């Protein structure tokens, strides 16, 4: 039996050696790609290309390696490869261990230089000034709706949407001991507390709930108090040495947050794209119908319409609209130009790969 085990381990070592050789071969090709892009002034980071790699490998795999793990493994391979071409600096709405941090790691991998900033406007400013080529900010939650600060920043800057990230939000109850009976108060961001309200009422009915600036700040507070617990991410628990009291405590398990990657650039078409625009229409009879007609007549699917008050004039609104397709497609371009004729202003925020 020991001889058989030894032979199997030797076989694994041989496979690992081959994987390592292939990783180095891949890295050499990536460096050549980087030089070719540099000569042609093309962007190093192309999210549609990454999506195509993940999808091709997922379809090609016949197991038994888990399909969900393919993306995670190649996410880090691609992240490390990109760092060979050019150090990837990414600003995100911090602090570390928030769900925005998790989303940035999911999109850019551990080899990227992830820089936490204190506010959404600070992320936009960092990218607009060229101090970071990309920024990650939340834009909407499936339960709580839009993040108004992010939409407002598109009215104040010329940054574009370069990619989107969908993250399943898993709220964990974390503490020093990991025992429910030790919990005397619970810290978290107000949204996280609201999303776990029923679980808290059923399991900790007499325990005070205390607002924190972020889920990461709550984890930091729990790390300093043996009688406290925090509702936060698993990453926060790892960072602050907290143990899980209970995982997945959100009342609605179908809890997703959508994040945007903002940049000064526009990405290349990828074949599975989404286009976002913002516009302000003139206030006149029938305008809302005329606003939708250019898309309806061309069979263009609108996946989201959101309005925000126009802060420079009372009772007037800016609309944010998402549609399937890329702005370079003739029907999309024609629909947007037809809408523009009815608008006081219209801005294309970006055409970018749809998150899967």
Break the fold down into its secondary structure elements and pairings:
Layout (H helix, E strand, L loop, with lengths): L1 H39 L6 H14 L6 H19 L3 E5 L5 H10 L4 E5 L2 H9 L5 E8 L3 E2 L1 H9 L3 E9 L3 E4 L9 E4 L1 H6 L1 H7 L5 E3 L3 H9 L4 E5 L1 H6 L3 E4 L9 E8 L9 E9 L5 H10 L5 E8 L7 E8 L5 H11 L2 E11 L3
Parallel strand pairs: 1-2, 1-3, 7-8, 7-9
Antiparallel strand pairs: 3-4, 3-11, 5-11, 6-9, 6-10, 12-14, 12-15, 13-14
Pathway: Amino-acid biosynthesis; L-phenylalanine biosynthesis; phenylpyruvate from prephenate: step 1/1; Metabolic intermediate biosynthesis; prephenate biosynthesis; prephenate from chorismate: step 1/1
Subcellular location: Cytoplasm
Keywords: Amino-acid biosynthesis, Aromatic amino acid biosynthesis, Cytoplasm, Isomerase, Lyase, Multifunctional enzyme, Phenylalanine biosynthesis
């Amino acid at each position: 039996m020991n001889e058989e085990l030894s032979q199997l381990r030797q076989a694994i070592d041989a496979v690992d050696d081959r994987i390592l050789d292939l990783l180095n071969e891949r890295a050499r090709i990536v460096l050549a790609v980087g030089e070719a892009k540099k000569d042609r002034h093309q962007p190093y980071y192309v999210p549609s290309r990454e999506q195509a790699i993940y999808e091709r490998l997922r379809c090609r795999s016949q197991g038994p390696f888990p399909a969900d793990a393919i993306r995670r493994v190649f996410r880090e391979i691609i992240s490390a490869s990109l760092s060979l071409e050019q150090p990837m600096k990414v600003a995100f709405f911090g602090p570390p261990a928030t769900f925005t941090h998790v989303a940035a790691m999911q999109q850019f991998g551990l080899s990227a230089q992830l820089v936490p900033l204190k506010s959404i406007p600070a992320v936009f400013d960092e990218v607009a000034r060229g101090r970071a080529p990309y920024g990650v900010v939340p834009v909407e939650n499936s339960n709580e709706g839009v993040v108004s600060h992010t939409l407002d920043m598109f009215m104040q800057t010329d940054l574009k949407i370069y990619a989107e990230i969908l993250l399943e939000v898993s709220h964990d109850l974390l503490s020093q001991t990991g025992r429910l009976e030790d919990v005397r108060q619970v810290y978290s961001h107000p949204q996280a507390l609201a999303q776990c309200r029923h679980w808290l009422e059923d399991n900790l009915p007499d325990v005070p709930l205390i607002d924190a600036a972020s889920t990461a700040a709550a984890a930091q507070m729990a790390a300093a108090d043996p009688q406290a617990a925090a509702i936060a991410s698993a990453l926060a628990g790892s960072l602050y040495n907290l143990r899980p009291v209970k995982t997945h405590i959100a009342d609605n398990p179908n809890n997703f947050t959508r994040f945007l990657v903002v940049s000064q650039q526009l990405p290349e078409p990828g074949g599975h794209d989404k286009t976002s625009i913002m516009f302000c229409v003139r206030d006149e009879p029938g305008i809302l119908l005329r606003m939708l007609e250019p898309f309806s007549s061309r069979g263009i699917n609108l996946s989201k319409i959101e309005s925000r008050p126009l802060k420079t004039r009372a009772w007037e609104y800016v609309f944010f609209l998402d549609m399937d397709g890329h702005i370079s497609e003739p029907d999309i371009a024609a629909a947007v130009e037809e809408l523009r004729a009815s608008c006081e202003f219209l801005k294309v925020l970006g055409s970018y790969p749809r998150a899967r």
